[in-house]
Amino acid sequence: MFDHIEIIDISLPLNNKTIFYPNNPPIKIEKINSGSSVISKIEMGSHSGTHIDAPSHVIDSGLNIDQLPLADFIGPCRVLDLTNCDKFVSKENLINKNIQPNERILLKTKNSIHGFEKFYDDFIYLTPDGAEYLADLSIKLIGIDYLSIKQKGSTDTTAHTAFLSKNIPIIEGLDLSKVLEDEYTLIATPLKFTGIDGAPARVVLLKSPN
Ligand SMILES: [Zn+2]
């Protein structure tokens, strides 16, 4: 079944140099001598690298990452090319993309072209009106190619709350540099931490040959 399917890894590598969002814990990995085998001690925040935000990230008594159905994270998805946007992605940029309810939507922006070597503040984000537009359409999942979907420093939290108040998970920290606007199958299962606000995930796209 998988013989001719291309697997595209859209996750960030996790190591001591991985960029992290300001005031989040950096990733710290340390090899530990356990006697006869090698193990590593890993310290990281729940929103490290490519990760998924659960409703409890911003909603009081919202669902935790383990309470979201796995079916949200596996299935058809569409990558939208928004690399023409210079500062943000807004409703105006999305309205002609014919987005339908229950779609999984990944936003490819200039962030993917800029790369992930060093954290920068003026990354491309989703505007409040863009978030409300997509959440009102009841899409199944949203993803973006930087460590936050919300403008850095903005007190308007709509980019998070519009989705998470409707239990629409947000994938952040995607690397879409090698991906074109198209339809794919998404696999984005978060690690099974229980009772917390988010978790890293290995996220891949599957593409069948045409
Ligand atoms: Zn997050």
Walk me through this protein's architecture:
Helices cover 12% and strands 27% of the residues. The protein is of the alpha/beta class and 210 residues long. It has one domain: Glucose Oxidase, domain 1 (3-Layer(bba) Sandwich), CATH 3.50.30.50. The strands form 3 sheets. The protein has a 9-stranded mixed beta sheet. The radius of gyration is 17 Å and the shape is globular. Zinc ion is lined by residues 47, 51, 53, 172, 198. Zinc ion binds next to β4.
| End-to-end gap | 15 Å
- Helical residues, percent: 10-25%
CATH topology tier name: Glucose Oxidase, domain 1
- The DSSP helix count reads 4
What ions, cofactors and ligands are bound? zinc ion
Overall morphology: globular
Strand content: 25-35%
Characteristics of this structure?
single chain, 210 residues, alpha/beta, Glucose Oxidase, domain 1, nine-stranded mixed sheet, two-stranded antiparallel ribbon, 13 strands, 12% helix, binds zinc ion
Q: What does the secondary structure layout of this molecule look like, with pairings?
A:
Layout: E1 6-9, E2 28-33, E3 38-43, E4 51-53, E5 74-81, E6 88-89, H1 91-94, E7 104-108, H2 110-114, E8 125-126, H3 128-136, E9 141-144, H4 158-164, E10 170-172, E11 182-187, E12 198-200, E13 204-207
Parallel strand pairs: 5-7, 6-8, 7-9, 9-10
Antiparallel strand pairs: 1-13, 2-3, 4-10, 4-12, 5-11, 11-13
Residues 47, 51, 53, 172, 198 line the site of zinc ion.
